[in-house]
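hey m, so remember when u said the tokens were messed up on ur end? i reran from scratch. heres the input so u can diff it against urs
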Amino acid sequence: MQNIIKFFTDKRNLKYFIFIAFVMLYFCNIGGYGLMNPDEGRYAEIPREMLESGDFLTPRLNHVLYFEKPPLYYWFTAASFAVFGQNEFGARFTSVIMGLMSIFLTWFVARKFEDENTANLSTVILGTSGLFFALSRVNIIDMTLSALLTLALFSFYIFYKENKKRWLYIFYIALALATLSKGLIGIVLPGGVIFFFMLFTRDFKILKRLFLTPAILVFFLVCVPPFYMVCKKNPDFFYFFFIQEHFLRYATKMHDRYEPFWFFIPVIIGGLFPWTLGLFVNVKNYLSKQQINLYLILWVVIITLFFSASSSKLIPYILPVFPPLAILIAKNILALKDYAKITKIWLWVFTVLTVILCISAILIFNGFISLKRINEALVYKTPVTLICTLCFVFCISFWVYKKQAKKMLIVHSIFAFCFLAVSLPFFSALATQRSTKTLSKMLKPLLQPQDIVLHFQTYKQDMPFYTKHRIAIYNREGELAFGRSKAEDADNWFIEPENIEAFLNKPLQENQKLYIVVKDKHINQVPGIENFEYIGHDERELNLYVRK
């Protein structure tokens, strides 16, 4: 009994409790809410179709070619489906594991080059940063890419400092896997960070040490065969993926994802909440002569500038900068000499935010503030109420411990964990607005293999996953344009305005049915809607009809 008590009270064992807490928090209810469109539906359906067809070299979405990404993430998810079943847990498992891997890597490197206190705090900061946590629970490729880039860049620095070849091999393997995950940025981003690190340190011997022939050979052995096999089976893959999806996507606005150059600055600041203030405290620490600080800062700056210069920007792109930022923030906080000043600033900032949040919630939920879609805002009533209550309670705690710096840090860490815990209902609420799970459950028992399902003026990418059925699309091809151009039966599945009446009125086979999924606002645009029988609708204002 004494040994058990000693284990729980020994500060050296704190890291185990932190890791256990993160595993529990990150896996909590990841299978309990629907896949959110469009990304989660897409990245679940592609590996599902791989398992269905047995073809793991040709990515397909809704049964047409889809070459926007390499196959590695699809293989990970397909393997997860094989183990856990084709469900939401299986779809999100890879992202959660990769998020936890990033957390562990951050602890490992901070412990190796700093101390255990810095390692523990870095881990807490990274794992409880709002954006990092949220994207670890979403079925998208970016968390996997971020984890592999983190592994590559940390491995390089360990090799640079210790000159142990095993870390160089790990570096090249991580580069290869990152490239198989999302393409050439798996090489470009680490290469850019290392290049500028070499310039700033004036250590040009890095190149000689880095280009070890056996290690480079390992990179090619891991990376080249999958790309070769995909390109051999699909000759169009090379141009579409490497030229269009890399150079044209980066340099042009072809995907309509243009944002201003400074787009990622507020994303980083907001995404670090509730540790944002750590960016701005003890800023002199950034300029210390420690080499690891230089490396981490270059890691953050180079990747941020790279994506900021792109004409295509999405919030998840910036994920790779969070691990180095977590270590830098932890070092800033622990190197503080005057806790009183920063504590006072933080208390007032937190108090003002808490008051604003609570007042806003009260006004919205009582109808004093009119929103464009108040019904959607009310979906979030429970999690917002929990967060307001949590902020209020911890605001009081912060004021109680304002003169005790160490306790303040402990209270804030507990608040960060609790904040994420009470935010979990947001995922379910958001999925309610962005998933067709309810409608798919309604449709699937009715479907037979020969039936036709038409999405009218929309395309919900999770419905093929839930119904295990191909979807016909009216007037909304989007990212399926390339696949459509290569599909021999495209006219049967991509319906143009001039053909919609003929499609809706064509003779059906014996026992064949035609279903339509349509939004409320488009119902009157369906030709001959009176010939269809209403079945039901979901929370997203999607309606299901069947031809009489």
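this time it looks ok to me. The chain has 25 helices and eight strands. if urs says something different then somethings off w ur setup not the seq
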